[in-house]
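queue> holo job accepted (adenosine-5'-diphosphate)
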Amino acid sequence: MLTVSRLAKSYGRLQAVQDVTLQVAPGQIVGLIGPNGSGKSTLLNCIAGTISPDAGRINFDGHDITGAPSDVVFRRGIARSHQDPALFQRMSVLDNTLLPARKQAGERARRAPFHRLWRAQETTLAGRAVGILHRLRLRDHYATRASDLSGGQMKLLELGRSLAGEPKLMLLDEPTAGVAPNLAYEIFEQIAALRNEGLTFLIVEHRLEILFDFVDHLFVMHLGSVLAQGSPAEIVANPQVKEVYFGA
Ligand SMILES: Nc1ncnc2c1ncn2[C@@H]1O[C@H](COP(=O)(O)OP(=O)(O)O)[C@@H](O)[C@H]1O
Ligand SMILES: [Mg+2]
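queue> job finished
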């Protein structure tokens, strides 16, 4: 579904990502791990189109999306969440979830004044947003301002926002950062449930004890390159990974 080939990105003389090749098959949950500064976020940013790689190719769903801007990548079906939730702090939980829906007729200038032309669609979208919030356990918070949520709820809301765009592939950057352990596990249970409904995930995560319970495959980055890949069992047993990642 996603193929990254020989990708490179540098900042001045710093090679943040170098010669990275990886694949994500449909329906997989793939983990991307590695020490701080190893290039994980930069790689996700290149895939999501928020930054443009210097070299290499990115293919998604049969299309070359190398260097494509983020709105084009999003329309192709890739959504991403950030390490620090990118929410509209002063808007309600429900409004945050409604924003990313595709092709909203009411946004088109010539149709906007004719509410009856798009009311049905708006109702459908709102219904879907409510469904998403319900399953993410935010149903008691529709009207809450995003800024009033707990850290864990903000992470859930960001996940919900990404879902509202009906993506095929989700790129998650540390979906449980700053979240209490119980809720962190719950977030991954939600991810697994979404995968069972057909979604595909590429996830950067530091909490390996949780991640390893859910991933099909892992890539380990170190100094901008892929150091190892394999199943959780293979990664745990890999001596190079132990050395650079677990410090053993
Ligand atoms: N916008 C930027 N400008 C300069 N250097 C950056 C920028 N973004 C990331 N880096 C550097 O690139 C390297 C990889 O960073 P990053 O991709 O954020 O790693 P990770 O997500 O694995 O912690 C780090 O050395 C980081 O300091
Ligand atoms: Mg990062």
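queue> The two ends are 35 Å apart (CA to CA).
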